[in-house]
Amino acid sequence: MSIVLATVAICFALFHAVSNALVGGLGTSKPGTTPRAHMLRRIAGLALFGIVPAMVAATALPHGLAGVGLGLGDPLRAAGAVSILGLIAMPILWQATSQTKLQAQYPQIRVQEWDRNLYAASSLTWAAYLLGYEFMFRGFLLFALIEPLGMWPAIWLNVALYVAVHADKDSQEVIACVPMGVLFCALALWTGAIWAPFLLHVIIALTSETGAIVQRPDTDRWAILRSPHTYGSHHGRKEPG
User: Is residue 143 part of a domain?
Assistant: First the structure.
């Protein structure tokens, strides 16, 4: 148990330092932050939340990677749950991202001129980040602590930490972390692996990002389908007003 908690604490501390250096914080970004900086932050999240804990699990935990949610699990349960919950969540999120309050937070990359390469790169790095993130929370932290703590204490500790890392977000998002944290833990335990919460989290993130991009009044809604620009800097791009 101690090695799990120590790994989580160290990886989050390192990720906080990386986030501060690249974008200015965990839930915010400093003015002038480039798309590349956001993407590097997400890749760092995959490394610190996914690769490092996986190495610890493979070498120091008794049940290895399968014992922390990286096995196959139950694919039929996972597919059914993700399909049903995704179909429920997508229209709700799409409607929510039409509101000015949500558009102030999403998309995370704050440029006005999107294109299909930037959109694809953003989507792929989001998925990579969330793979590490879900493994950290709903794999490494959850499965490894059930045996020493019991199922419900492990879930509530998981949810408490999930809420804590969203403390600098909007109050509604912080509150929503409680039921969502319980749901993601339940999906992982019910299916025996991290894949259902990971896929559902990707659907939520990409629906929110896409909805916010195409529904902004100052953004060309068809830009994400158009030919690419260089996205390494803000050259040729404008931040939304």
Answer: yes
Higher-scoring residue by pLDDT: 100, 52: 52
Q: Is residue 51 a contact partner of residue 137, using CB atoms and an 8 Å limit?
A: no
Tally of domains within the chain: 1
In a domain, 105, yes or no: yes
Structure token digits, residue 175: 């509150």
Is the pLDDT assigned to residue 240 strictly greater than 70? no
CB 209 within 8 A of CB 103: no
Question: Does 36 fall in a domain?
Answer: yes
Domain membership of residue 174 as a residue range: 2-225
- The rounded distance, in Å, linking the Cα atoms of 159 and 181 is 5
| pLDDT at residue number 225 | 73
Average pLDDT of the chain?
Answer: 88
> Does residue 131 belong to any structural domain of this protein?
yes
CA nearest to 176, candidates 87, 79, 93: 93
CA dist 79 → 85, 110, 135 (Å): 10, 33, 18
53 by DSSP, 3-state: which?
helix
pLDDT at site 17: 93
pLDDT single digits (tens) 182-225: 999 999 999 999 999 999 999 999 999 999 888 877 666 677 77
78 vs 5: CA distance, rounded Å: 27
Distance in angstroms (rounded) separating the CA atoms of residues 185 and 175: 16
